[in-house]
Amino acid sequence: MPQPIEYADASAQVRAVYDDIKKTRNVPDVNNFWKYLAHDPVTLKRTWESVKEVMMPGALDALTKEMIYLAVSVTNGCGYCIASHTAAARKAGMNEAMFAEVMAVTGMANETNRLANGYRVPVDDAFLK
Amino acid sequence: MPQPIEYADASAQVRAVYDDIKKTRNVPDVNNFWKYLAHDPVTLKRTWESVKEVMMPGALDALTKEMIYLAVSVTNGCGYCIASHTAAARKAGMNEAMFAEVMAVTGMANETNRLANGYRVPVDDAFLK
Amino acid sequence: MPQPIEYADASAQVRAVYDDIKKTRNVPDVNNFWKYLAHDPVTLKRTWESVKEVMMPGALDALTKEMIYLAVSVTNGCGYCIASHTAAARKAGMNEAMFAEVMAVTGMANETNRLANGYRVPVDDAFLK
Amino acid sequence: MPQPIEYADASAQVRAVYDDIKKTRNVPDVNNFWKYLAHDPVTLKRTWESVKEVMMPGALDALTKEMIYLAVSVTNGCGYCIASHTAAARKAGMNEAMFAEVMAVTGMANETNRLANGYRVPVDDAFLK
Amino acid sequence: MPQPIEYADASAQVRAVYDDIKKTRNVPDVNNFWKYLAHDPVTLKRTWESVKEVMMPGALDALTKEMIYLAVSVTNGCGYCIASHTAAARKAGMNEAMFAEVMAVTGMANETNRLANGYRVPVDDAFLK
Amino acid sequence: MPQPIEYADASAQVRAVYDDIKKTRNVPDVNNFWKYLAHDPVTLKRTWESVKEVMMPGALDALTKEMIYLAVSVTNGCGYCIASHTAAARKAGMNEAMFAEVMAVTGMANETNRLANGYRVPVDDAFLK
Asked: Count of CB contacts below 8 A, A vs B?
């Protein structure tokens, strides 16, 4: 089994990424996700820089982005990601009522996606414009 | 192949649902999704009432909910749902920049979900509290 | 793009499988699925023999098996499989009301699967016995 | 982490749902799924009423519905749902031989869904009628 | 909960499969996967013979096949399969750098699959030839 | 519906990415995937640079990487991606026999993933080391 790579044991290359994560997120340590990805410093760096760019507030705020991330993780059934992005969304301001609505929408979308599949519903002309 | 059930050919039970959809959404006709579900009036009614309840603005606004719906549909690869919820999200106010960010977050979440799976990352203690 | 391999153009090895499909199912020709798989005679033969063994009436009858097959195909969003197994289930006796219930159960399961994921529900002790 | 809401600690609204589940299913307590959903009484009520309607014997009996639910849960890899619906299906009459056949069909469908995807098999004309 | 069936407790039919697995793979015992499938000797035998045929070196070597198996298992989020096929791929020669690249490709494919879905990209004419 | 952005209509920022794709891959034009992503130049650039880094021959050669990409795309049922990565893998050297084996392994992995889920097989101690 792979083991997490702690800061003390990390290469300069990995430490540079950890430092940027800690600074960007204002946290004292990085999550396990990064400590495992650190086995591949190239993927660690690319993934962090991609996540940083994608999750930066833009046309959508950080909270909305985290709730979308959570909805996808719940759909895929990724246990680690559900746990970490629930925490991240809460930190960004998701309260209990918001969490409940993210779950309700995610559940409903997964249901109607299958109803549309099963009834083989053709796309409305209006949606093709 | 099932065929859509148009208002003119619908039973009173189905028409009542169509009328409520048209009134709630202020649209002249219902989408194909409902015209196919109409083959099962019980599921039509339950699904519409559930969608109406879930998608009503609450702790989250209509736009945020539609973008989450879209992210789930994209993750599942449901062609009909991607088309219809892209349209619904645009109607609720999603502009080009927002659409692009929903896609970017959805793509990134699908990627990191698999990295977390593959590296078998254990959940951080902090996420279990 | 691969093209279907018709009986007239098939090798003796492929024809033997086609013949067995036609005889077992009492049909005049095989579906496109087999005509494409025929590009790999080894997979064609293994898949057909596996499908034949699995779908043979046993503890479950043919109709129940076809409805399960359809529910899985709808969940995965496989367009070809939804079309072919809807047809197969109808041939095995699935009427409109049964189809509607297969869809309703499939949709609901996809919804509650995500609610269970998102709320991180631990397995009840009773289910571990 | 969310915690289960036990009957003693539940609101009147939540207790009403728990009471209906216990009465409908003739069980002394509700499963963890409902105790977690209880954090959102609106979703709890809607989900229970939907599940009750969908799973009621109709054109399909309770056992067939539970086996379809299980097949979907196995396809999605939802650990909680696999455990709970295996138990529910057994209670509805699924024996060892039936369980084995549900698994065999589910596995085979997941395999052939991908073969159809990968070989890009076009839908047969006969399935479009 | 089902329990694993050990060699000492297995029927002659199951032992014959276990013996063939041990001989083919040159291992002293079979993995849990087979010990659970043994509850259905027919599926045990069919699955083993299929896996043996599919995973045999052919146009692709054993290592390449195991890495593909791992990529699929990671995509589906099957915990058992990720663990067992990581071990199998390592045994077939996958080193740390190769594992990292399998993960990177799997993650990227999952991301771009959703970008293609969400942007509703039509297939290029060149890919239809 | 979004439309593809052709080189002649592209901004300097987008053209720079198109130029790099054409040079890196030695092709006269870019695929539709990039022409649609071009609606979001930031995602276009990040995705291309990530794909370029990930797909560069390293511990694994280009062909192996493309076959893994294809296996994931087939598992997810992404029609565009199956078409484009089948073409890419062929260009990298995948012949008919190799394609057939990628499909066979992908199909089998999807099947056994579900058997492992459904039988709730615990991870072998040996895989936890």
From this structure: 195
E114/B103 touch (CB, cutoff 8 Å), yes or no = yes
Quote the DSSP letter at residue A29.
S
- The separation between the first and the last C-alpha atoms of chain B, rounded to the nearest angstrom, is 51
* A34 phi and psi angles, rounded to 5 deg: -70, -35
Contacts of D103 in chain F (CB under 8 A): 114-115, 118-119
Q: Are B47 and C77 an interchain contact pair (Cβ–Cβ within 8 Å)?
A: no
pLDDT digits (tens, 9 = 90+) for B35-81: 999 999 999 999 999 999 999 999 999 999 999 999 999 999 999 99
The answer, for B75 touching chain C at a CB cutoff of 8 Å, is: no
Q: Is B16 helix (H, G, I), strand (E, B) or coil?
A: helix
Give the pLDDT confidence of B85-102 residue by residue, as tens digits. Answer: 999 999 999 999 999 999
Cβ(E95)–Cβ(F60) under 8 Å? no
Could you give the count of Cα atoms lying within 13 Å of A11 in the half-sphere of its Cβ?
Answer: 9
Calpha distance E95→F96 (Å, rounded): 28
Cα(F17)–Cα(F14) distance, integer angstroms: 5
Polymer length of chain D:
129
Q: Rounded to a whole number, what is the distance in angstroms from the first to the last CA of chain F? A: 51
Alpha-carbon distances, residue A110 vs A74, B53, B56, D72, E74 (angstroms)? 10, 16, 18, 12, 21
Question: Does the beta carbon of C77 lie under 8 angstroms from any beta carbon of chain F?
Answer: yes
Nearest Cα neighbor of D43 from C107, B45, A97, A116 is A97
pLDDT-derived band at D126, boundaries 50, 70, 90: very high
Q: Which DSSP letter does residue F123 get?
A: P
Residue C77's closest chain F neighbor by CA? F77
Q: Is E103 on the interface with F (CB under 8 A)?
A: no
* Interatomic CA distance for residues F115 and F120, integer angstroms: 8
CB of E101 within 8 Å of a chain B CB? The answer is: no
Decide if C39 and F96 are in contact by the 8 Å CB cutoff.
Answer: yes
Q: Are F85 and F69 in contact (CB under 8 A)?
A: yes
